[in-house]
Write a structure and sequence with these properties.
With 453 residues, the chain is α/β, with parallel strands linked by helices. It has helices spanning 13-25, 65-75, 108-123, 134-159, 180-188, 211-218, 260-265, 272-278, 348-361, 390-403, 410-413, 420-434, 447-452, and strands at 2-9, 30-33, 45-48, 51-54, 80-83, 86-90, 93-96, 200-203, 225-226, 231-235, 240-243, 247-256, 267-268, 283-293, 303-305, 315-317, 332-341, 371-376, 379-384, 406-408. Bound molecules: flavin-adenine dinucleotide. Flavin-adenine dinucleotide (FAD) binds at residues 9-15, 33-36, 41-43, 56-59, 61, 230-231, 257-258, 262, 286, 379, 382, 410-412, 418-420, 423.
Length: 453
Amino acid sequence: MIKTDVLILGGGLAGLSTAHHLNRLGSLSALVVETGPFVGGTAGTERHGEFLFDHTGHLLHLHDAYGKKFILSLLKGNWALHSRSSWIHSQGVATRYPFQANTHGLPWPSAEDCVAGFLKTVHDPRVLPKSPSFRDWCLATFGAGISRQFMFPYNEKLWRGPLSRLTTEWQGRFVPKPAPSEVLYGALMDQKKFFGYNADFRYPVRGGMQVLPDALAAGLKQGQVRTNCAARFVDLASKTAVVENLGEVQFERLVNTMPLVDFLDLCRPLSASVSVARLRLRYNTVYNLNLGVERPRMSEKHWIYFPEKKYPFYRVGYSSNFSPHLAPRGASSLYIEVSRRCDEKVDLRTLENQVLSGLRSCGILKSSDKLLAKVWMPIRCAYVVYDFARTPAVAAIFKHLGKIGVESIGRYGAWKYSFMEETILDGKRCAERLLGLSSQAEKTAQPELKALK
Ligand SMILES: Cc1cc2nc3c(=O)[nH]c(=O)nc-3n(C[C@H](O)[C@H](O)[C@H](O)COP(=O)(O)OP(=O)(O)OC[C@H]3O[C@@H](n4cnc5c(N)ncnc54)[C@H](O)[C@@H]3O)c2cc1C
């Protein structure tokens, strides 16, 4: 039987970063087991012919001093800085992102409706309860016009459910709130100011985003990452896991980075409260269609949001504008994102026809375009749904996992909405906790737990 101090489930950025920081900061042995044939998980890249496709757009937004230094050191100069060019397609025109600060270009009655509604929120503010729904928060923050024309239709498309059931916990960093002067200015003229957490981004020049997890894995000890090794069963009482192609693995500490729902499904024993809480967790699947098109530089844009129902997709991005090396000379590549609840059945052939016809009707594809590649790369557990059931469910689960010393981290292990830099930092903090190096305040990984105390 294999023995390790720390068993890490999942070789995405969270798992690899945990192993890296365990090696760097202490002397515990660690083993990463990954179900897929490659490391990287959601931040990986697939090669199809001469095209490299990420799992939709994966762009580096670096905000933390350590995170930035560490990630750039891994990329060894293989990156370029881009100024975001993101747009919204609605009412037959393209307006700049974010919609709430850039209604210039819309038919005037629509822009006027947005500005009037926004100014009403300034002069006659609505008092919100302590935990408002996302719907009420949109109305109170942006007003009726912006909510009706963008916030509601776009988010209903992404979340596939009533916005009155969603909390606002996920949107803090991700939904920019402009000042009244910016909303007014952006209605009257083309405002080129950048808003939001991702005004610029870095992207590898060569190799797609895969180069980041590959660089992390390359720095680990030989044999420390085992691919094609899915965890099949975890006995939390005897601290043993059954892993495909490895057999039984005995561990002292366990770090989970696979989706929390899947992890709980393979763990025994679990308390009744955890089993009930697990049933409350919801997620959405992103059906990601990647296209290779025989036409150079199809657009100057990076990505476009589509709030209107007539288009099946909520976002389309031009990946070859992140790096020309993602597509062969004379060609471009695109990713198209469609969201579905985890319980919705999808017929990919029908969806593909709807997507292609949507792309033609909005002018992205021309009837003369030759498709060189057409690859579906669905992300089964892509967006954790922040409904009102999630907060107490996650708190109950982490209270239990904390008691038995199990770490569950990363975007899906911690069951949250986050990004690559944060995921890498999650791994560092987890390693510090395991090595007893973290401060008392950081002993718990879950903000929800702290909030409950
Ligand atoms: C549509 C979309 C767009 C995104 N865009 C961006 C972006 O532009 N910028 C950004 O910074 N972030 C972006 N992100 C977020 C980013 O992908 C994540 O923060 C990060 O990749 C999460 O890494 P992780 O290690 O937590 O999870 P994962 O990458 O999911 O890693 C978990 C690993 O566990 C493995 N696994 C699953 N089951 C088992 C098992 N039974 N046994 C062993 N291994 C198992 C999986 O194969 C996977 O490799 C985006 C995410 C999505 C869904």
